[in-house]
Amino acid sequence: MAQRVLVVEDEEDIAFPLVRTLEREGYEVSWVDSGQRALDDLSGIPADVVILDLGLPDMDGLEVCRRAREAGYEGAIMIVTARAGELDRVVGLDYGADDYLAKPFGLAELQARVRALLRRTASGFSASGDPDPHGLRVDVAARRVYCGEQEVPLTGKEFEVLNILASQRDKVVARGRLMADVWDENWYGSTKTLDVTIGRLRQKLESVGVTDKIVAVRGVGFRLEGAAAPSTSSAPSSADA
């Protein structure tokens, strides 16, 4: 069955290219132009991913995000908006969004973000749809991480690093991006802070049997990958990261 994407956008000249592009990718796509219609749609046939504009005619997209999460929606929510400020991005994530894309954006980037979100929401479940007892599951809205049904206790920074890596699963995330997004783009301390955090994350995930691995790519950054994913070398220790 095709994965379902709900596009919530009131501007037709933006919505139509999105819908056509996603349909060409093989997704089942629905489009609504208001917040209430989005909530009504999600209460009927839940989507795997919601692409949500903030500037809707009847209510703010953040309110749609909040209500959807309160109603039990567990799929991925990606906010797209002309509000490019750091505060808006943080607020959107606090309301339960999984990703944030500022307008104007390229369709290729949006496609890549949707694929990453679908991989993340699918991780933590076996092919039969049952929870994988060793799978990693990130609950962004609750800021909690699970190995199967067991919660992995993480600090705020550990969660934020893992959340970024999980959102880009199987892709390398640059050290600079992690430092800028988790700490601050104006951080002047040692980047060893990131290495220490990665080391603690590895220990905590391994201690509960998570099969996903955080792999260091020397001189570039880090990648979260499944235990069965191909790799040319074993993951180095945090001291080598």
From TrEMBL:
Residues 123-226 bind DNA. Gene3D superfamilies: 3.40.50.2300, 6.10.250.690, Winged helix-like DNA-binding domain superfamily/Winged helix DNA-binding domain (1.10.10.10). Keywords: DNA-binding, Phosphoprotein, Two-component regulatory system. The keyword Lipid biosynthesis does not apply. GO terms for molecular function: phosphorelay response regulator activity; transcription cis-regulatory region binding. Residues 4-118 form the Response regulatory domain. GO terms for cellular component: cytosol; protein-DNA complex. Residues 123-226 form the OmpR/PhoB-type domain. CDD domains: trans_reg_C (cd00383). InterPro entries: CheY-like_superfamily, OmpR/PhoB-type_DNA-bd, Sig_transdc_resp-reg_C-effctor, Sig_transdc_resp-reg_receiver, WalR-like, WH-like_DNA-bd_sf. It comes from the Bacteria. The modification 4-aspartylphosphate is found at D53. The keyword DNA-binding applies. GO terms for biological process: regulation of DNA-templated transcription. PROSITE patterns: OMPR_PHOB, RESPONSE_REGULATORY. It holds the Pfam family Response_reg. PANTHER family: PHOSPHATE REGULON TRANSCRIPTIONAL REGULATORY PROTEIN PHOB, REGULATOR OF RPOS. This is DNA-binding response OmpR family regulator.
